[in-house]
Amino acid sequence: SGAVSSLQQVIRPSTYGEDEYADVDWDNLGFGITPADYMYINQSTKDGEFHQGQLSRYGALELSPAAGVLNYGQGLYEGTKAYRKEDGRLLVFRPDQNALRMKMGADRICMPCPSVDQFVDAVKQVALANKRWTPPPGKGTMYIRPLLMGSGPIMGLAPAPEYTFLIYCSPVGNYFKGFAPLNLYVEDEFHRATRGGAGGVKSITNYAPVLKAIARAKGNGYSDVLYLDSVHKRYLEEVSSCNIFVLKGRVISTPAAIGTILQGVEERAVAVDELAEADEVFCTGTAVGVASVASITYQGKRLEYKVGAETVAQQLYSILEGIKSGAIEDKKGWVVEI
Ligand code: COI
Questions:
Q1: ipTM for the complex?
Q2: Which residues are reported to carry the modification N6-(pyridoxal phosphate)lysine (predicted)?
């Protein structure tokens, strides 16, 4: 068949490692791949149904060269994080929301999708099986990466005949090096997404097209790129790796989700000119967390913003990290304990 198969043997839960911690330099974690012990694979049936998935050793996949994902980009990814609590339990933040976002994406690019329960259960299995790779409290998190892909072979442009839902993970530290506020560059040549495209879902095809803009900006010393809408080149969209929020007085604004960006909170069109008036700007994302923006450069002009302990971004960061890590009481029922 043209489906994915792991080259590694399937592992039964009784063979999980017993050590409390893997041999990792926890004080020097970046946002990179540190291979953990296990990954999860669930192969759809020919009818696109997902039944029982399984854990196997983390390792290479065997995939048909004609797989839909390799040829036509039929794939989605998600990202969530597990936190190790002081009492040793693992916490995951709103994994059902990742499952629902994957469902929306699957619908957009014509894939069957595991149920919310299957998704959340698989995230739990991966987190538990790799517990010894989860950083100690305060040292980082376990980044969990679910993938859904057309793994069956297809020659003409059409949905693949079979699908694979897979989850792997890696211990990570900060997405951006150090903890310094970001210096963003407003890109006006390349766009991340366009109206009617797939920018509103986490299609893997949204990411490679911005690598050039990121490389150029990083080469010039910026942390990341802020994209404008492709129609007017005037409204903010998002940053390559996260969403953006602009604070003026007591109001926080974030670009409206109109199908080109991933969803944020209070949403409206935010014009690039408003950046000149903002008091504070910050970014949010699973990988990034909450990150203050120190400066934004647009058409050769560098705008600077308030950063540091007194900012709204810092308060949001502390509260959100507190809830996610179990240090602050979760009154919303957002945190799932494993
Ligand atoms: C995440 O925050 O999980 C993302 O999808 C961003 C990615 C570039 C690491």
A1: 0.94
A2: 202
